[in-house]
């Protein structure tokens, strides 16, 4: 129907007339045996070659797009094939089709009858294609394929597709073998590899299974690659399969019965908790599923299936329904590549349902299909196939959207890979891309990518065909990744929080905490942001311990978060991260309990300091707690530190009220606030302006709603005080990065509460921690916290956590447990409740980190009072004490030089540590009276660490140490702890830091030097630097080991000592450098415990070849000047390597 050139208005009128019902759209159902209604669009437009109309170019070409329907496979039930095709027909018959197709396009669906054996063979397809030839005339044919179904079928058809330049749209396949770069196969769904990853992720992060099995069949090109990928993925997270079921099978015959039975028996003995079933949908896979659901020992095992196995799940269910009803049934989870037909959370699904309803009304069940109205609402698997077919139709219509692309088959095929992305309402399919040039891939292009699905959905199967979406199981992949490699699954942290059913306060607190924490749990986008997971465990308060023990026996539990009771905290086999206690209590001094919020002890120090500063004469205490005696003793000790007498201390029972017990003036510690106390407390503060009341943070947070309701607008709000390390949770336009992130993650302002922010901040701390961890277990989590020591997340900081002493003294050496620091809150401020309502109000006391030191200790850690008692009791005890102290000092030095600790085996590598104080000569000149004590503390700290890590003091020269360790990890940990111990040691002066500032500024004035610390904000500086700065170098290698006949100690000669010494020499003060040899002497698991930065290769003096250097991040946040590669020995600096033996002084 070509027409001569017409004015544009006439052309538009012609197009509109052709698109009217009965003219532009025609339904042709003349083909036989198909389930398709055919639709054609006939539009022809003549255009001019230029805007002036001087030249007429006739490009009026009618194009017939023939869609060959290959949706058929003997292993696919006919109802599934009909459902898929019905979905496709609903798309191409929708009212929007004419709007999307360009003019001159005729779309025709052709049903290809399968061969005699029901297979879609190349010969069958060629028979239908042999009459189709490309034409250079105006009327041409563009063939495309819908399907095919099955990996083998797709593989066999590839030569035909390549030969004819034909594209197969939406092939339905199941394994990874066919999912490689083929321009002729246009997949619209995520790959089987992505489905496998989703199944693995669901098994380890949601089901938290510790014993996972795998099933596949050999000899059918299905599952082999997925098995290999599973083994590798689990290995990367420190896991493995507990069992494997596999037998030789084929597409036409079952496995040998004896082989099947033997494999089944062996597999059943592994007692898996879950099995990933990646067998081809054949008889043997079906038999395996039947046994998993009927045999007694397997009835509770979780089955995880890829979407292709939905082809057999309904039949398997029907065949086992009698047995599973009697014995119970295995829970079944299946991955999916498109949303369910009933999931109207998607706009695309809402439009699908409209198109489907219209199509089934127009083409009722009978001639072309047997699908009844609303069938997709009653059979979810059929509905899922309908959605798949509908999406295929939508993608095809978009692909045909530009007539320029339809010039010929090659042009059309090439157009499909020009970074194509299809937006089907709120569903995204793509990007599809061809061969790339230059840096296109690195800049985000999709290259050699013929698959567009980026989302995998997870569903639970009920009754064989009912599917229920599992939102936590969805997996989202980057569109540009495609076939580059399998995305990495990182080891998850499986957290649990306990909802105590019969405690209203606990229930509200748990809900608030999880409002914040759950905003950071994994959302299926992989990477380090997809590693933190929280799972709810419901229990009565009295049964929480039993519930936790049961949970731990069945599923992986890394740590417990949120609200806990005293019984739970008594468990030593569970890790608790920042437990929110329902009543005040002293901290639990065990390494499995780690505090991020201020402990009660820390809060008391902040409160007492403020009370003393304000000139308070005395403090009263009201204590309601099961551990009232312990808290009372703590209050007494803290008050003594600040020379504040305790006026009265009253222990309250749960039924006691504060009315009548509050003083008319002065400061009051109210520890153990009850809901019934709040209104009387508010009234008392209103009526007695001379009273200030301090409450613990968790008392305030647990009763937040009650307190804000009672105190809003009342003057007493200014004098109800609490201590916290959190920023303001409800401050608009907050400067705090943590609060801004919290508000973005939790936009509902009604949920901006202290416990919600606490949950969010805890989640951010865990995410920061996990970014430096590999394998994650309860033990590796605790080890990582103590190894990393300081945790920084946004503007929040926690630590240092330490299992060692921050300062050296004989008493701590005798009792190491007293030196374990399992709390990390810093920058603790004192707030009034008035500031809760108005963030612009200042804190009552600005943020500070209290030093928990009660009294100065004398010999052997005795306090002054204890020492006085000893003196008054008997003089000889004092003599013994002095002797004991001297003995202890001697013992520690001897332990550091204990030859039993020395590496002696000449065939074993030795890790050598060299240390030196930066600018020691200048410091001695500037501070001759301070340096003797500073160097003595320096020696004591280092020697205590040598003993603690089982290393050996080889020698000292002035203020330099040479240390030998058998274990590279011990050496690295010693060096890291040395920097942290020096940072937190009380040097008794700031003069050393002032000098380092001055040295840097002097060097900067000389030019070419940027001071790394001199211009830091004082608050930042105090968090990173303090006192003497020690540089450290570490190297591992074989040594020439000799016993010195004079000193009777061991020494280490050769290149190892020289390289270690030169490594230390190029370091800056406060910096720890490792050679490549030292770093890679650590095992893979050990390297995951330490954080390093590669500094590249360095040329060291007297070392022939460049050495690769790594910087240990001992104190995160420290920045250093460039390595001192051009530095020569300063006057007064000494070489301690064993080649310079004449300068060695053995102490």
TrEMBL record:
<keyword id="KW-0479">Metal-binding</keyword>
<feature type="signal peptide">
    <location>
        <begin position="1"/>
        <end position="24"/>
    </location>
</feature>
<comment type="function">
    <text>Could act as a receptor for an unknown ligand.</text>
</comment>
<feature type="domain" description="Guanylate cyclase">
    <location>
        <begin position="911"/>
        <end position="1064"/>
    </location>
</feature>
<dbReference type="GO" id="GO:0006171">
    <property type="term" value="P:cAMP biosynthetic process"/>
</dbReference>
<dbReference type="GO" id="GO:0016020">
    <property type="term" value="C:membrane"/>
</dbReference>
<dbReference type="InterPro" id="IPR028082">
    <property type="entry name" value="Peripla_BP_I"/>
</dbReference>
<dbReference type="GO" id="GO:0005524">
    <property type="term" value="F:ATP binding"/>
</dbReference>
<keyword id="KW-0456">Lyase</keyword>
<keyword id="KW-0812">Transmembrane</keyword>
<comment type="similarity">
    <text>Belongs to the adenylyl cyclase class-3 family.</text>
</comment>
<dbReference type="GO" id="GO:0004016">
    <property type="term" value="F:adenylate cyclase activity"/>
</dbReference>
<dbReference type="Pfam" id="PF25495">
    <property type="entry name" value="Peripla_BP_A-cyclase_1"/>
</dbReference>
<keyword id="KW-0325">Glycoprotein</keyword>
<protein>
    <recommendedName>
        <fullName>adenylate cyclase</fullName>
        <ecNumber>4.6.1.1</ecNumber>
    </recommendedName>
</protein>
<dbReference type="GO" id="GO:0046872">
    <property type="term" value="F:metal ion binding"/>
</dbReference>
<keyword id="KW-0472">Membrane</keyword>
<keyword id="KW-0547">Nucleotide-binding</keyword>
<dbReference type="InterPro" id="IPR001054">
    <property type="entry name" value="A/G_cyclase"/>
</dbReference>
<keyword id="KW-0460">Magnesium</keyword>
<dbReference type="GO" id="GO:0035556">
    <property type="term" value="P:intracellular signal transduction"/>
</dbReference>
<dbReference type="InterPro" id="IPR050697">
    <property type="entry name" value="Adenylyl/Guanylyl_Cyclase_3/4"/>
</dbReference>
<dbReference type="Pfam" id="PF25493">
    <property type="entry name" value="Peripla_BP_A-cyclase"/>
</dbReference>
<dbReference type="InterPro" id="IPR057398">
    <property type="entry name" value="GRESAG4.1/3_peripasmic_2"/>
</dbReference>
<keyword id="KW-0115">cAMP biosynthesis</keyword>
<keyword id="KW-0675">Receptor</keyword>
<feature type="transmembrane region" description="Helical">
    <location>
        <begin position="873"/>
        <end position="893"/>
    </location>
</feature>
<keyword id="KW-0067">ATP-binding</keyword>
<dbReference type="Pfam" id="PF00211">
    <property type="entry name" value="Guanylate_cyc"/>
</dbReference>
<keyword id="KW-1133">Transmembrane helix</keyword>
<dbReference type="InterPro" id="IPR057399">
    <property type="entry name" value="GRESAG4.1/3_peripasmic_1"/>
</dbReference>
<dbReference type="InterPro" id="IPR029787">
    <property type="entry name" value="Nucleotide_cyclase"/>
</dbReference>
<keyword id="KW-0732">Signal</keyword>
